[in-house]
Amino acid sequence: MRNVQSFIANISVPKTPEDLFWFMDEYGMYVLENFLDSWDEPGNWTVPRWAKIGDIVFFTHAVTAGQYLKAIRNRLKERKDSYTQEDFDRAMEFISDGLELHSEYGGKIFSVARVTGAPEYQKYDEPFYWHSSIYADIGDAFMLENPVDVSEFKSFLPIARQSSITPVIGSNFDRLREIIISHGNKVPSWFTEATAAPLPLSAINSENWLELCYEYRNRFFLEEQFRKFYADYLLRALSDDGRLYSECRIRKAGSPDSFADNVIALGGRYVVVEVKLNIKNDPSLTVQLTKYCNADSIFTGRDSRKAFPAGKTQRDSLLVIDTEALYLYRQGEEDLSLLLPLSDLKHKKEIPHLREKILRII
Length: 362
Fold this sequence. Notes:
With 362 residues, the protein is α+β, with helices and mostly antiparallel strands. The chain has ten helices and 14 strands. Strands 1, 2, 3, 4, 5, 6 and 7 form a seven-stranded mixed sheet that branches. It has a seven-stranded mixed sheet with strand order 11-8-9-10-12-13-14. It starts with 5 loop residues before the first strand and ends with a helix.
């Protein structure tokens, strides 16, 4: 697969006695054990917001996991009188099992897999220590017969300490893959054939943006990149006059001012447009979009010096674009309506047809 993104998923352990007991009694095992029990199809897993189907995941067990477990063991011993003998013994055994896992997998890449499902927001009430709300299905995994220690790549790819996710970008992917293969690990063809070559963003202009970004479009992992090199060009092409208004102030009586990403003129009316990387990652999106509907005033920028003519603003609906599709939102509806998957938009000559479709609907 061309232009894949990749990242390291760092599996850690509980960091407090309370979390340890929850994992012991409710989860039933360590997260690493859960992975090892179903390593070929790991299932739902935390991923970065910018992850896409086909992205490659390197699984490691945290270097610091052993330190956390030993610290918990010391705290339990200090407060031994607070626990029954049975609970204390079970905790000691659970910690011992965790330290044994760490001695084998700690600080090593031990498996590689692919993202097989689109990332989605999921909120759990359980005391998970990773604090992430973005999950995706992971599959096609293979275990490394010879795991790779982080000491072999930390000079060019240090593991993030404040996050369970470490992006592996551009040439770092090639270097890490080379190390894995050099250890004699058997790897599938999708791993050896993958490329992480970045798109030459400096080459994109108003003439070639659609052709250059067609395959790379859903590989942008920064919203600003997606705006600048794809969404802005598309919105200008759809508009009546080629103008694009940005960071437009929205004013409604009884509510604080809000700011929409863009406004364009379509068929003589000014339409609000919101730009996202992935609408599924934003659980409060419709709440945000509702703020833009039936506004008293929509201004041409962040300040309030000039407003669009009130009688020419689209009041009850707006457009939303992410790296997958263009959508329509109507006030009061819970879901967005799909207008066009962006994978169907391959040539600039197709944009007038898309424009006509939007005008018929709004």
